[in-house]
């Protein structure tokens, strides 16, 4: 089975609001952060779900990419 492909408009639908799951993209991989309490309501330290956040994870996050290892992968991101 092929992976779901997300573009910016498709990813934006998964913002954790109004019952939608919360997805983020990092380095062309889309992760589901819905079950993480830190992402409640689709928000985490000023960052919003439904977006490509590679620059945040790599440049501003104190924990970096290691937090991604346990998240479910739901697809690939192509801008």
From TrEMBL:
Ranges of residues in domain Cytochrome b5 heme-binding: 6-78
Signal peptide: none
Matching InterPro entries: Cyt_B5-like_heme/steroid-bd (IPR001199), Cyt_B5-like_heme/steroid_sf (IPR036400)
Pfam families membership: Cyt-b5
Top-level lineage group: Bacteria
Protein known as: Cytochrome b5 domain-containing protein
Taxonomic lineage of the native organism: Bacteria, Bacillati, Bacillota, Bacilli, Lactobacillales
């Amino acid at each position: 089975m092929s992976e779901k492909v997300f573009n910016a408009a498709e990813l934006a639908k998964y913002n954790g609001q109004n019952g939608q799951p919360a997805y983020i993209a990092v380095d062309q991989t889309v992760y589901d952060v819905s079950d993480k309490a830190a992402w409640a309501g689709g928000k985490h330290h000023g960052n919003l779900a439904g977006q490509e956040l590679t620059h945040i994870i790599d440049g501003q996050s104190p924990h970096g990419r290691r937090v991604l290892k346990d998240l479910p992968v739901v697809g690939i991101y192509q801008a």
